[in-house]
Amino acid sequence: xxxxxxxxxxxxxxxxxxxxxxxxxxxxxxxxxxxxxxxxxxxxxxxxxxxxxxxxxxxxxxxxxxxxxxxxxxxxxxxxxxxxxxxxxxxxxxxxxxxxxxxxxxxxxxxxxxxxxxxxxxxxxxxxxxxxxxxxxxxxxxxxxxxxxxxxxxxxxxxxxxxxxxxxxxxxxxxxxxxxxxxxxxxxxxxxxxxxxxxxxxxxxxxxxxxxxxxxxxxxxxxxxxxxxxxxxx
Length: 234
Description:
Helix content: 25-40%
Distance between the termini: 62 Å
């Protein structure tokens, strides 16, 4: 007689998720805020770029709530999203919840969630889930130092660009690495979003309707504008 234990499903081998714990470099890290509010972060576009390079085939998704919405309702009436990654061979990471928060990091009531709140939380969840499941940029969450670049040809620490006396900080020239990063992020925008980005950039910096963006994007204020607004063009 066949043993009942023979009818039990065999355990599946452990899924191997990408390990991206040593991928980010100081060149990938941006800063926002000043003083005690200063924080290091990796822009969500940069996060996606690193995933494309180092975890090809893995895609970020938001799970659906019971009403087929991406917004979930917590027991106390506040809102959150649930993110996960799918792999090239039908792998799926565990669910990762992320509260939908205002600019003071307070959870927003379910009924008051706007489209902007949802899209911002999607980007936050992408980054936090990538850190939790793949270790991408875990150092920033753990407040650990980021090692020197291992993707570059040189291991020497980058020297900060010398400031030009008599010019305000916001008008200082961008280092080549920062400018190249900004231009690279712009190139990743879809055509429709690129058109909106260029229109708003020209408006805010008093450019003509046909002025090229790349030759103008040279100062720290341009980088600050991108850090504050790039999330709107996705």
